[in-house]
Amino acid sequence: MTVEQKRVLNTAIPGPRSQVLHARKSAAVASGVGTTLPVYVERAGGGIVVDVDGNQLIDFGSGIAVTSVGNAAPRVVEAVQQQVADFTHTCFMVTPYEGYVAVAEKLNEVTPGDHDKRSALFNSGAEAVENAVKIARHHTGRSAVVAFDHAYHGRTNLTMALTAKNMPYKDGFGPFAGEIHRVPMAYPYRWPTGPENCADEAFETFVSNVHAQVGEKRTAAVLIEPIQGEGGFIVPAPGFLARVADWCTEHGIVFIADEIQTGFCRTGDWFACEFEGVVPDLITTAKGIAGGLPLAAVTGRAEMMDAVHTGGLGGTYGGNPVACAAALGSIETMAAEDLAGSAKRIESIMLPRLSALAEKYDTIGDVRGRGAMLAVELVEGGRKTPNPALTAAVSATCHRSGLITLTAGTFGNVLRFLPPLVIGDDLLHEGLDLLEAAFAEN
Ligand code: PLZ
Q: CB 3.0-4.6 Å disulfide test: which of 116, 148, 161, 240 passes with 302?
């Protein structure tokens, strides 16, 4: 399937067919399941999403950082078609198959560090995070887990406790899992004494909080996104990650990098930790791993992963053969097409234009991110007060003009950009033109 790489607006957004489907959605689907942009999708590929009214939208979202290889990427399609015709499920814990083993081998190879590793496969990011915590607790015999302000780790009970933001993720869903302790994030733009002090002071606060309020010897794991995703594409001050990781090693605490959003070439390296040479003990992956099929993993030091008794990890569908075939096709695409290089290409086009936009509008307080994971944080002109209203308005204008954009941030004031890594330069520029027009209009 090839989708013409061209924006087309046939109708208003959403068009009449999408509106009919949306009325059916409202009548049939639980209203707790929200919709960012109610255009109903018919096909998608490269940097374009085609809706049921024949509109072709430019994709700056990749289904929340999932279709990094593009929708319906040829190697993924071929691998999935072959696998689905051969067999769809046996349960890896009952009668195993090669695809799962091959994905584990690949993960052990492409994740940071050349130590002996093992992997286990699951279905969703949240499930991977849950299992990483289980493994860390089993390995250390300790119970406490440290997570950060602005963190997002999922919507299951344990991962809701790990996620920082109340609305919409946690409100009314408690009580939450215990033994989760939150510490400040090294957030340069909002660090009280300025970005230049952020790494040092955030690290000192982290150490003293864990020491005083948790206790090193009770701490099983420190869990961190190397660039925070849902929390607003917060890039920790340089040096912070490495110092936290080293401190964990010193105290026998498992350092877990949640690379569910940042992984698989998104930030210009295979994994975001590599940028500063950080080697996590355990790494959680999902999203970009399998070109859109549900798959997730925990990969880590063999002695930690193997600390768990046989039968202690698993699940009916974990490492489903069709999802594994998709992952192998997807990982092969990333290597063959140098999608890490492509993420850098995207940054080189987008970052200067976003910075120029920030020069023009004092409502853009910060421009940040890496590779094809970039964002602008919107504030009240000239101050740092979050501006979620403007964020929503600019995003809505983009949607109406045929550009899929997403928002993020604890304060709902971050516009984030996650184009598929295979998007062409022309579409990137056109998307940025639409974004500029949306700022001019709001
Ligand atoms: N860890 C770092 O980004 C998922 C959430 C979308 P699942 N982020 C998108 C939403 O509103 O539900 C995510 C993440 C990081 C864990 C997760 C959870 O991954 O596959 O959604 O469970």
A: 116
